[in-house]
Structure formats: structure tokens, C-alpha cells
Write a structure and sequence with these properties.
heterodimer, A: alpha+beta, Cytochrome-c3 Hydrogenase, chain B, four-stranded antiparallel sheet, 47% helix, B: mainly alpha, Rossmann fold, 2 domains, 8% strand
Amino acid sequence: MEVVDQEGRTLTFSIGPQHPGSGHFRLIVKVDGDFIVDVKPDPGYVHRGAEKMCEERTYIQNIPHLERPVIFDSSGILFPYVLAVEELLGVQAPPRAQYIRIIMAELNRIISHLYWLAIYGIFLGHSTMFMWPMGDRELFIDLAEAIGGTRVTFSYFVPGGVRNDLPPGFKERALKTFSYYEKRLEEYDKIFFSNPMFLKRTQGIGVLKREDAIRLGVTGPNLRASGISSDTRKDEPYSSYETIKWDIPVRKEGDCYARSMVRFQELFDSLNIMRQALDLIPEGSVKIPMRGQIKGKVGESFARTEAARGTMFYHIISDGATHPYRVKISVPSFRSLSAMPFLLKGNHLADMPAIYWGLDYWPVEADK
Amino acid sequence: MVTSGSAASVLVGKVSDVIGSIVEQAVKEPVRYIVNWGRLYALWPVHIETACCSIEFGAASGPRYDLERFGVLEAFGSLRQCDLLVVQGTITRKMVPRLKWIYEQMPEPKWVMAMGACAISGGLYIDSYNVVPGIDKFIPVDVYVPGCPPRPETLIQGFIELQNKIRKTKVR
């Protein structure tokens, strides 16, 4: 931390970008004693110009760099891009590919939530909760690696389907992992989510009321923790999500505890969704054969999906060329950023890590 | 096809070479050997994440890959106690001055590792308007770890290369 200036009672200093509790992001904080009176977020340390780069690359070449913003949720954030490109081309993925996409997106949601849980554990001073999710995360990385070929960046979704079929024996292997992991989740509950230390540091901290959540425009688990039952997978079903049954986890409290419990419940839900998808998956091809360069028809298309952090939205404008004319990405993390100063004001400085990482804010995604 | 016997003999040969060179150095230059030995297995990396490679660094610190068994400790907050700067990914124009300040604030001796294609050359983002093509124009780099992102095994190999480099450094 560095002292920027000192005026009377209050002290202004910056947290980050080199700080164990901030990541590639800076918060300019003004404190009065131990209380935060003003917060100014300073994002943009990882602004890599993804939207501009899209205009210089073809539709297929755009896939690798568009999954880098959230590298552990790479399929989840790429999902709306392929859906939007498919809309431009006027094609739809075959049914088998749609279910494989569900499996891959839910695997990535678990990988992303476990990374969040590991870092949240270490933020709250619970080292065991760093080690356990990090270790169990590797099981799901193994499953995703069996499908996509690499550890985190798969480039697996392509316009018109997915790159390759599921490997032989995947279903048995996946079900074995799921049944093992459900037992582990009960242990997580015992050691962390029912831990008095965790409850004291999260309950009643950083309360985001229903009205404020709507006004500030947060999405995903943060919105569901404020008592609003909203999930793009249910509201506007895409890619055969309408055939799968599960309940949206909703909490009324709107504090850090509620946000954590919603994500914890989503781990169970993702396992449930993947089990159903593995049962429902039909036989058939996984990709529509396409020849030569993809050229979208003149016009524009939108797609909205539920990534691990919330609603991911793509707007593509095409002028009929091999590369898009304009791509607009609307990311969920940037919406959490609007809620962060609101939540931090008036709280203790020591509660900053709990609130900051409780929102599951990922700076690389927000900066694009 | 390599039989297990010949593979084992190659391995034994390599190990005996390494041990032989270490013993030779310890006998020839004991001070240098002891100082470098002290530095080798207690590398404290700075806790700075610059882009997406940081999650593979996190995975390497996790239980499956466990960097600590190679003498690399967990990332640490205070610069004054760190001797290793792992640049974890893309460096943008906004980050360059901060990275220089961080490097200048670290005490000697210090080493820098460029992790990932972006830190080496700009990588996937080489034609982006806000990304600098490689960090070696701003700070000296000791080890380059390729990959986008590098697998934890690659990162571990990078640390072993760095330790080999430290073993050979002169003590002033």
C-alpha cells in the first residue's frame, strides 16, 4: 500500500495493483480510522483491446483470444460468441453438439467456482480451503482435458458445433468423478461453509438489497443472492437447456454469505445438469461441415448466455466480409465493479477482501 | 523403442553428472557453493498477477503440482522480502511503469521469470494497441517459460532451469 495524501482525519491510499488482496486491479481507498469513506476503482491494467482485435481477425481466428479473458471459464464465455456467429450464418449446432456444449460449459462453471472458492478461502485466512478446491479442481480439469485436449484453453466450441466428439468411456469416468465429488462437497460444508470464522466474516457484510442490485445492474450469482430469481439458462433457454430441470438457487440476504452459498449450491446444480445432459445426449454428428472461410450475411446478431460470473452478452455486426465489422462484449464482471464502491463504503477496511472477492470480480474479464 | 534398462542407465548417468558437478563446485569454491545453496531452495515470488497466466501459477502452487517441494514458496505480498518476480502474462502500457517500480523496489539478488507467450513477445496480443511486445525491453529476464498458458509442469521446469542458473552465479 502507498500513501497518496493525508488531509486532516482521512487518509487516502491505493490497494493494488501489487497487493495480495487485489490482483491486477487498483482501489483508491479513503479511510477515516478503520472505516472506508470513499472508494474509487481503477481498472484497466489488463485492457488488451479484445473488441478491436476481433475486427482484424476472421471468425475462427477470434476464438482463441476471446476465451482468454476468463481463462478458467473459457468455454462459458465463448458460448455467446459461437451462438451469435451461428445466427449470422443461419445455422444451428446438431443436437449432440448442443448437449456436449452444456457439459463443457458446466464443467467450466465448476472449475471457475472452485478457483473462486480457493482464493476466497485464502482471503479469509483459511489455508485448507485453498488446498482442497485447488486439488479437487484438477479432477474437473482432467475431465475437460479429456474432451478439449488442453488444461484450460480448449477452443472447443466452433461455429456449427464442437471440434470433436466425447472420448470413449467418458460417461462412466464423469459419473465416477461426480459421485466422489458430491461427498467432498459435504466436507466443504463442514469445514468452511458452517465454520464460525466464515460466518462471522461474511454474514451481514456488504449487503446488496434487491432494489440496489437491480439499480446497479449486477448479474449472475450476485443477483440471485439478492433475492431475484434470474438465470439466462432458464429465462431465455439456449442450446437445449430447456430440456433440463433444476431449481435456481436464490437467497434473500444479499450479503457475502448469501453470495457464497449461491455459488456453493451452483456446484451441486452443475453436477445435476451434467448428469441429465449425459443421459439425454443423442447419437449423431457433432459439427455441421463447413467449407472455406466463414462469411456472415450482412446484418447483426445478439446472443446472451449464463457464464460462471453472470450474463455474458455478444453483439456482432457483419458487413459480409470474412471478419466481423464490430464486436461488442458485455461482461458480468464489469457489472460487479459498479456495485463494489457501493458495498465497500461504510465498512471496515478489514472486510475489503471478503466483499471484493465475494463478488467474484475478475479484472481481466472486466478490462477485456 | 527404448528399453527400461537403457532409460534407467541414462537417468543414472545424468544424475551422477549433476552430483559430480555439484561436488566439484563444493570442493573448489565452498563459499560460492554455500551462498548459492542458501538462495536456491528459498525462492520467494512477488505476489503480482498481470493477466490470465496467474491461474496456472495458482494451480502450480496447489496440491497436485506443489511448487514448494522444489523450493519455491508461495507468492508473498511484501516486495522487500522477495527475490523472484514471475511476470504472469500480458503487460499493458498501464502496467509497464508499475512493473518497473516493483522490480526496482526488490532487494538484490533478484531474478525475473517471463511466464507465458505474452510476457515473452506479446503472444496472442502482439498486434493489440495496448499491449507491449515482451517485457525484456523494460526489465532483464532470466528464464522464459513458453506456453499460452504454460502447463504447471512447464512452469516447474522453468523453476529448475532458474535454480541451475542460480547455482552458477558468481558471489560478489
